[in-house]
Amino acid sequence: MCIGVYLSTVDRNMQKEEAVRWNIKVSRETDLTLRTFLGSHGMKKGDLSKFIEQAVRSHVFHRTVQDIQTRNADTDPDELQALIDKTVREVRAERRGKGKSGKA
Questions:
Q1: Does the pLDDT value for residue 12 go beyond 80?
Q2: Residue ranges of the domains in the chain?
């Protein structure tokens, strides 16, 4: 299986994104397994890119979570929770401030 490289504009939720085409190689077994999976779930050929993008995003997210957990493994849980709580409060206050200034 091969996926090429190009730039195009994709409209997702009213936001323009540039799409990049990848050229990748996978084993015939992986190709057949994935295409069989996609077909059995009613997905079409165009859904391959969506499936790969979702899989990559999911994998990157989980690896990021693992990295953060590893980095914070020796941190005191109460100290970590206090930091999280403080950051959440700051972000919420910032968002509330933007929401009020956006309304005229």
A1: no
A2: 1-48, 58-104
